[in-house]
Amino acid sequence: MALGCNGFQKYSAVLVIVLACVLFAPCDARYRRSHRYGAQLESDVQEQWFIQRLDHFNGADTRVWKQRYFVNNTFYRSGGPVFLMIGGEGPANPAWMQYGTWLLYAQKLGALCLLLEHRFYGKSHPTEDLSTENLHFLSSRQALADLAHFRTAIAESQGLTNNKWVAFGGSYPGSLAAWFRLKYPQLVHASVATSAPVHATVNFPEYLEVVWRSLAAENPECPLLVKKASDTLVERLKDPKTYDNITNDFRLCSKPQIQSEIDSAYLLESLAGNFMDVVQYNEDNRAFEGAVGTNITIKVLCSVMLDSSLGEPYNRYAAVVRLMQSTFSQSCLNIQYKSYIQDMSNTSWSGPEAGGGRQWIYQTCTEFGFYQSTDSPNQPFSGFPLHYFLQQCADIYNLSTSLDYAIQQTNEEYGGYDIKSTRIVFPNGSIDPWHALGVTQDITSDLPAVFIKGTAHCANMYPARAEDLPQLSLARDHIFILLQKWLAE
């Protein structure tokens, strides 16, 4: 068992495992209304607090708040590196202070390990509520400035000014890890940016194109059957006489109320999300976090879709949804867009989407886009086009539905695919749909990519296990060799 620390003093810790990676740093992902979410359990890993500025870019604003972080100095040797794990669009999970590949690197290199929670997520509450006015202080730029100030202050107070700092993160935090090195090269020596979408884009139909390819890699018929099922459902939603059957088939909490294309889009995206989530996290090793449903893999989904005894593809699609509901103990599925908008518009820290939904969708509406639409013909779903996602920006935050300038700003700020920096490694998995917005080929010898065939989102970050693919084990080793080399520079 690894040890955490309190004020950099060692103490024993017995961790009560908490929830799934989708909600927790450091490998957060696209935020979905998903069966994976639930309440955070108690942990014996001790949380600590850091005084942070509310607005790093307005010297006249002196307001401050408390940001949560965790420490593990079990492996630290004097003069060793400092590993900083970056939090993302959910509560920081102290399980990562005891588990994960980065701790093996820390043990070998004598590193001190820190995990900093992202502003506006988890318990790190910079403002009294989540009003749109207050969410103006939620951005990747402010988060990077948080990291810079935290790194500077901790280094000064703990005598770590001359130590080499390495940033780690997966998914959006992976992007932050790369951008931290880019924007503050004097503060961070190297970064491991796993499954990092570095290119912002309003429309991201390539996500579902990768879902198609990942399903087809299991069986070429699988995505074709999913498409037939999805197309059938779209047709049936045009006839209100079918709604009672649809409600029963998919165990919906209420009969569909289809008054606009947006209403049907919400239903269709909610059902497609089962396949999207499974593909993104296929055969990962998140069990240590308390993740439920890791036994539901692409192989399982395709076995259901290929089972002709269940009836037509539509019936098999419904069987997949029922399987997921059973796995995650859901009695029914709420598919009412109005209810979703009501939940997302709740600005209280105790609101139903305060775990990350309201915050992350705001970031997509103001910085990233990343909307996984059905606008490509080369994917298996139908019915949730780009304008459905853009409408949410207006309905939830009263923001513009034109994000082109915001996306342009983000790519101008960070460089998109053409990032200009050094000592950043970009691991990605071929099954993970996010690799389409990541770096999958070396930019330079000092900006290498590690593209891992057959693995999904953030696979290299999770603890190793006997059934890991050989190429995954090699990728972990390669990243360690790079860290060794860079820390010697």
Automatic annotation (TrEMBL):
Q: Which residues form the signal peptide?
A: 1-29
Keyword Phosphoprotein attached: no
User: By its UniProt entry, which Pfam families does this protein fall under?
Assistant: Peptidase_S28
Among SUPFAM superfamilies, the record links this protein to: alpha/beta-Hydrolases
**What processes in GO biological process is this protein linked to?**
proteolysis
Gene Ontology molecular-function annotations: dipeptidyl-peptidase activity; serine-type exopeptidase activity
Sorted alphabetically, the keyword list is: Glycoprotein, Hydrolase, Protease, Signal
Q: Which PANTHER family match?
A: PROTEASE S28 PRO-X CARBOXYPEPTIDASE-RELATED, SERINE PROTEASE 16
What is stated as this protein's family in its record?
Belongs to the peptidase S28 family.
Return the protein name. Serine protease 16
